[in-house]
Write a structure and sequence with these properties.
The C terminus is likely disordered. This protein is about 45% helix and about 20% strand. About 35% of the residues are buried. The protein is elongated, with a radius of gyration of 22 Å. The protein starts with a helix and ends in a 7-residue tail after the last helix. A 6-stranded mixed β-sheet has the order 9-1-10-3-6-11, sandwiched between helices. The chain has a 5-stranded mixed β-sheet with strand order 5-4-7-2-8. By secondary structure, the protein is α+β, with helices and mostly antiparallel strands.
């Protein structure tokens, strides 16, 4: 069977993008705007800074710290909480930054500079899963915590070295490494944050995890609460209760949503008809699929499809 986490990240189309390696000399402040279908990350290489959400929640990043800002939330990056701020695009213009080389901002002393590697993890428009909602609003991983997670620590080290060294293929290398980094960040969060712990426990639970693997490996099958419960050795009522407790939704609600998520993925990457996609994800007719898809995503699958539909 395929791994559930692999299937989730493949279906939501996880893609990393790097913005810059920046050196910011105090005083400095960057206002980072909202970004849909994305989780931004900032890795502090040297110095210190503050990352602050619009609601005032904030974390201080020391050298070696990493922060993840999920759900495309707008935020600020500051040398100190009182430093003046400018929009990120305005800062690009002031610094003359075009995307090549380091992003240099500020005229303070070099030895007081903060150096950051910044980017985001993007997902397809409309992509969703309870796992993505379980990530805390500000996921802060300190250098000390990172050091206890060998894979996470190695990835951060490789990204830092390759980003700073540059050279042919550097951005492609950092992008691939960053996608692996996101997975290790999730694994770290699973041991530290209650909602993430519960969601990851669902994936690894002997019975609920098995049920999730069954669903993810054959989404088109006519699953029922009874058939899934039976397949994992649980009564209907106990299975439904345990599934909701760990996953946060009912088994049939999960299946209905995941069918649409898989359909979204198929429409994004395949040149299949709407009728064919409907069959692939377990709908009895193209018409029923079209109604459900349109209600969920606000546009018909024919409109979403990159090729003409015969549905």
């Amino acid at each position: 069977m395929n791994d559930v986490l692999d299937d989730i990240l493949d279906t939501v189309e996880l893609r990393a993008a790097l913005y810059f390696w920046g050196e910011f000399r105090p005083p400095f402040g960057l206002r980072v705007p909202a970004l849909e279908n994305a989780a931004r990350f900032h890795l502090n290489i040297v110095g210190e800074c503050v990352v602050e959400l619009a609601d005032g929640q904030s974390v201080r990043l020391d050298a070696g710290d990493l922060v993840l800002v999920p759900n495309g939330a707008p935020h600020r990056i500051l040398g100190t909480p009182d430093d003046p701020c400018m929009l990120l695009d305005d800062a690009y213009a002031v610094a003359g930054f075009t995307g090549d080389g380091p992003f240099l901002l500020g005229d303070g002393p070099p030895d007081a500079a903060c150096q950051l590697i910044c980017g985001h993890f993007g997902f397809a428009a409309g992509a969703d899963h309870p796992l993505l909602h379980a990530v805390p609003e500000l996921l802060h991983i300190t250098a000390a915590e990172r050091a206890t997670q060998s894979l996470l620590d190695d990835l951060v080290g490789l990204i830092s070295q390759r980003m700073i060294a540059g050279g042919a293929g550097a951005m492609a290398s950092v992008t691939r490494l960053s996608e692996a980094l996101f997975i290790e960040i999730l694994r770290f969060a699973a041991a530290k944050h209650p909602m993430m712990t519960t969601m990851m426990r669902a994936i690894t639970d002997p019975q609920i995890g098995h049920a999730l693997r069954l669903i993810h490996n054959d989404i088109a099958k006519g699953w029922t609460v009874e058939s899934l419960g039976s397949a994992v050795g649980m009564s209907r009522s106990r299975f439904a209760e345990r599934f909701r407790e760990l996953v946060g939704t009912t088994p049939m609600g999960y299946i209905a949503e995941w069918r649409l998520q898989r359909a979204l993925r198929f429409l994004n990457v395949q040149r299949s008809s709407v009728k064919a996609v409907a069959t692939q994800v377990g709908f009895q007719s193209a018409a029923a699929f079209t109604r459900a898809f349109t209600t969920r995503f606000g546009q018909s699958p024919t409109h979403r499809n990159r090729s003409p539909s015969d549905g």
